[in-house]
Specification:
4 strands, 166 residues, alpha/beta, Rossmann fold
Length: 166
Amino acid sequence: MADRKFNVLFLCTGNSARSIMAEAILNREGRARFRAFSAGSFPKGEVNRHALALLRRLNYDTSFARSKSWDEFGDPQAPKMDFVFTVCDQAARETCPVWPGQPMTAHWGVPDPALAGGSDAEKELAFAEAYRMLSNRISVFASVPFERLDKLKLQEHLDRIGKTGD
């Protein structure tokens, strides 16, 4: 288990901000152990401009970023997921597809920065806060010693991560 790369899918309803940021963070921070993807139940069709601006300011390559449906990952030809994390409360309440291979799942809810009102500076602050929460959780996740945990302990750990960084 320690020598393989794990596929991780981050889900959010619109796949325009939080799940996109989580995909970027894990692909950079965990690139030796993980391949991250993101999708939405009702994708908006475009990535939020504030999310893209934040990622670019932090020197992420955003060429990967596109809003897409979770249907892409239910296809038999899609990469088999090892982990699926919901990052918004709406997606956590929706009936998710049956993922091939029965990946481990957890809810890591983060407030939607796209709902922030006010000036652009206030909106940017909301996106920075969402990024911070996701980054903290992903950092903890990326350091999990999978090879030393049985499935039940790993699930408990994944659920606890959802409360990290609040």
